[in-house]
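Hi P.,

Sorry for the delay on this. The queue was packed all week, but I finally got your sequence through. Input first:
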Amino acid sequence: MIRLEGVTYSYSKQPLIQEMDLSFEKGKITTIIGPNGCGKSTVLKLASRLLHPNKGKVFLEEKEIGGMKRKEFAQKVSVLLQSGYTPDMAVEDAVMSGRYPHQSPISISSAEDKRLTEYAMEVTCCQSLRKKSLRQLSGGERQRVFLAMVLAQDTPVIFLDEPTTYLDINVSYEIMELISRLNKELGKTIVLVLHDLNLALNYSDRLAVMEKGRVAAYDEASNSEVHRCISDIFKVDIRQMTENGRSYYYSFKI
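Then the structure:
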């Protein structure tokens, strides 16, 4: 559905991504993992049009994204990045702002805008927070609201950059369960960057393992070659366990 072809990107003449070929499958959760500074977030920004490659092309289905109009792209792809800034606005207004790609500059919110805003808050369990300011919320509550904004945007593709950063373990799993629901129940194609190997192993359909600006391995999350690559790069061992009939992966330092 989304693919990078021969993409190269440099910052201040420093090469970050070199001749990258990578595709993200429709209807799957694909997670990009790798050491700090390997280019994970850069790939996400290149695929979501926030950065432009020095060389190569990025396609959404069969369209080169550089040639798409801003609103056309925003109707198909929504992006949630890390940010240290939290606006002082009510939760309901923040979620409604996700509808902007579907509105004209002079239009008021339509019945469909209101329906999808309400639906997004319901799915993400934000309804009780609607009148609160984003600045009053805990980290987990705020992240649920940001996901509601993305859901209200109603795009088939969602990009998420480190959606569990700074959250405690329980809240991180709650956020990943919600992301999994968006994929399984609503059919969203989700591409995300994670630093937590255990979350990546257990919630992804496919893993793209990066090292020094290149893709070192890319396959299903259960693939042994992917696990071997993760072990080599992170110096960890990966084991599988079964509990209550469900299999889990966990990693630990060798």
